[in-house]
Amino acid sequence: MKSSNFIFEEETExxxxxxxxxxxxxxxxxxIMLVKVDFKAGAEGALHTHPHRQCTYVVSGVFEFAIGExxxxxxxxxxxxxKPDVEHGVKCIEAGILVDVFHPVRKDFLN
Length: 111
Prior knowledge:
The chain contains no helices and 8 strands.
């Protein structure tokens, strides 16, 4: 299970997740996955947990992230690390894009 070596944005479908949130799976194999998530202002990613390690890079926009007991505002150029099984969620303050990296691959994201 793996993606192509080259993944072009214009050739990669967006998946609508909820009102104002969509994602593109930009590359993966059995061990790692790169996902781009586009948020409109006011959109939210509900609180949830998963057994994957996650790093997130803020490409653009302003977001309020809750990770465990902490809530902080992050902006373009900031990043986050999420341990497995820690509850987290996000609210978009100003429209933007996040890039998430997961280990291992999020099989639940694949059709």
